[in-house]
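Entry for the shared binder. Reason: the reviewer on the internal report wants the predicted structure included alongside the sequence.
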Amino acid sequence: MNLPLHFGLLGTLEAGLIALLVGLLIYSLWHRLCRWAGWSMGHAIGWACFISVIISAGIDAWKLFYMGIVRLESPFYARMYLATIHDPNELGSRVVIEVAGALAGVALGWVIFSSRSGDKTETSH
């Protein structure tokens, strides 16, 4: 995410909170789409998890993957690449917290929207 976040643990927690909100929003969109199309809620949960993780942790996960695969043999190239990362010291923990936040947002959305859907079906009988 290219947002002006704090450094360290506070920035990691901010990224996780943003990922949680992204997961909640994406699940709400997929929930509506699946109800409209008549699909099961499994489709909504699966696609919402996939898309929210890609949106919230995609850039940081790619940078973490790239640093592990590509050999940065020259100190000049290593410094140039590290300059593109917001907080290189917390990159690994930020990716983990972003993924967990996105999945938690989808789970929270499922709890919220499934309780609303259950109330409607119980009162209509």
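Summary line for the report: Confidence is low (pLDDT under 50) at residues 121-125.
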